[in-house]
Design the sequence.
């Protein structure tokens, strides 16, 4: 027997989050899609809007780097049918307004209003030839990146898989697990096998992430098979200050003292200080960029 559809014209996003810069002038909107095709359509049209600096997708996550403010989208059917018309950071909340024509209006309103972790919303009527708007309010979050290396041995384990499984386990409303990157390092003689470190990204509600970090560390200490595990925590909106150090790690051997200096200079929290600290620090700036981070840097240099 064919069952009835609960809401035949709404495909709700799984989650929507907003990571704000400290000043509140820039926000990264993270939308976890339930339908890749619909989200790809949205990304094409939304990226044309004046507030959107850049956009990309990473698996089921669609990410929009936007300026805050309000604009007139001047929508045109089939060419620029929907977009983000305003983004405001208000205290510990972020207010995002989407506008769209016809079916784009349905997507711009109800599909996002019903997303997970949305605090509240308001929408106009959508569908047909209408211009519709939908506003959602989500918690203001900050980016938190954890870098890990050296959890395995010559015969047991793989850092990337352990870190992913831990990240899924500690995921919670206060600290949402967003992305995972394997970072290819220079194959030094002391490597276990492939010389790869790992970075995982979380979208956290400020001041409420400590429990997640403690649970992460406890699980890492429980399941690592190495005495030299390194783990660092970075709370920067943009950790690009570590790219110079990371590139050195991807091109040549780097000392433990260099890793320690880089971590301290960038304000990282050193949670576990084994020799794996070298790769853990190098992993941080490659958060959310797994296609780039897996490429051996020394091969790029040779060519």
Sequence:
């Amino acid at each position: 027997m064919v069952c009835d559809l609960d809401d035949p014209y709404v495909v709700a996003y799984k989650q929507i989050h907003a990571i704000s810069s400290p000043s509140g002038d820039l926000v990264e909107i993270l939308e976890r899609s339930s339908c890749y095709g619909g989200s790809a359509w949205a990304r094409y049209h939304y990226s044309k809007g004046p507030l959107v600096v850049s956009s990309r997708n990473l698996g089921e996550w669609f990410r929009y780097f936007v300026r805050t403010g309000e604009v007139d989208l001047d929508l045109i059917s089939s060419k620029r049918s929907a977009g983000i018309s305003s983004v405001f950071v208000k205290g510990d909340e972020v207010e995002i307004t989407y506008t769209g024509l016809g079916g784009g209006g349905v997507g711009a309103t109800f599909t996002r209003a019903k997303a997970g972790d949305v605090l509240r919303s308001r929408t106009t009527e959508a569908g047909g030839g209408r211009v519709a708007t939908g506003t959602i309010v989500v918690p203001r979050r900050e980016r938190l990146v954890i870098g890990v290396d050296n959890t395995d041995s010559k015969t047991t384990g793989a850092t990337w898989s352990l870190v992913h499984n831990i990240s899924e386990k500690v995921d919670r409303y206060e600290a949402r697990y967003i992305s995972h990157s394997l970072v290819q390092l220079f194959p030094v003689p002391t490597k276990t096998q492939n010389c790869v470190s790992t970075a995982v990204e979380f979208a956290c509600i400020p001041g409420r992430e400590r429990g997640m970090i403690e649970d992460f560390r406890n699980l890492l200490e429980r399941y690592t098979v190495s005495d030299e595990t390194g783990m660092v925590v970075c709370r920067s909106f943009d950790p690009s200050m570590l790219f110079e150090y990371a590139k050195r790690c991807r091109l040549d051997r780097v000392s433990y003292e260099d890793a320690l200096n880089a971590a301290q200079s960038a304000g990282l929290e050193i949670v576990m200080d084994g020799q794996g600290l070298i790769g853990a620090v190098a992993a941080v700036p490659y958060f959310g960029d797994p296609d780039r981070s897996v490429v051996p840097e020394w091969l790029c240099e040779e060519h």
User: Anything to note?
Assistant: The chain has a mean pLDDT of 90. DSSP finds nine helices and 13 strands in the chain.
